[in-house]
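Hi L., both proteins are below.
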Amino acid sequence: MVTGLIAIGFVANAEGLFAAAGEVAAGLWGGPVILFVTLMLVVCLVTVVLNLDTSVTFLTPVLIAAARSRDLDERRLLYGCVFMSNAASLLLPGSNLTNLIVLRVQHTTAMAFASQMFPAWAVAVVATGAVTLIAFPSRDARCASQSKQFRARIGAGAVGAALATALVIASPQPALPVLILGISVLGVALLRGTLGFSRLGEVADLSVLIGLLGLAVGLGAFARSWGGLSDLLVSASRWQTAVIGTGASLSINNLPAAVLLTAHAPLHPGALLLGLDLGPNMMVTGSLSAYLWFKVSTDAGVRPSIKTYATVGSLTAVCSIPLALIALTTISHV
């Protein structure tokens, strides 16, 4: 399913959908706070619908360009993109591969999962945005010109994203349909000339990353034979489960950690996902999304700081995980 979502995101990016969204946001009247909030909403939407790896890969350059177009310190939007992508990935199974790994032993539908996780998701998104906003103070921005034109084409990528969302929500087994949809969208884009054959090398790069995901999951499966860690979650409290999930994701990356910790069905899967999805904001070793973010940021001419990532990201995690866990416990009872 993740492969299909990334393929759809790749086509949507080629059609200019993400760039146009950033261009429109940069053209809005208002100061840097309005720009930040607007673009973080875009990040949330793309993450929820098309996966967090798609979000950091295609939106990071867009957000950097939006900050530069307004003569703003780009760090707020730069770091906000990766932190918010991790936070927003809590909502749907396909938003984060770790969600799918945990859900494989839970046997729940996407709609049920979303309804359970929504309170925690909303709290995590708000907390992450607030901490990032405060951590990177910005001067007043000049008013943006309204002369820019919306150049996105509502083509196969946009239609594919809408259909993928419907499939993830409505279908009890969306993985194969979404994969077929992603391949179909890619094929349509190639036939229509929206995506040139010369750009398939970029798709190949994405396939390498997907291969790395498979390798990480394989290593996690191998690690399960050691036993012990997954047994801890059978009787652990919600708070203990969240802490274990956070520690495991920072130690061995959240993908193998998810496989390792779900050899047996955890007592509190929602709390585990808080640790696996939000915990990686504390260190760049926590998730593949950080690697992708570093790569595209460097390609855009920015040098991210590991120290800044850890400092501000730890603040977002320390604030968002407890608050989200309280929301999960008191509202969803997961």
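That was the first. Here is the second:
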Amino acid sequence: MSIRFAAAKRPCPNRMDWYQVRFATRVAANDNSLRQIRSDALHAALRHFDQHGLAAARVAGEQAEAALIEGDADGHSLWLDICRTLDRRTAAHVASLAANRR
């Protein structure tokens, strides 16, 4: 059995008009509302991610727990912000553990 190429008889038109394309591409699909994230926490999270890679959120959560155990409220808040910037679920888990310890 041979394979034969059959080209389309007419080109397929674009399904979206130019104004629909412009509107659809205005905002990135993975935009997680960066306005909610403080810029200093974002920069700290990016530096932390550079050092720890994909484990950065877990390490930040561990640092937040360690700061809470030591009684360092500012350190706990900073590490929790970094963890929240990287992964909201992990930060929520760490925050619930902190609430249970109090």
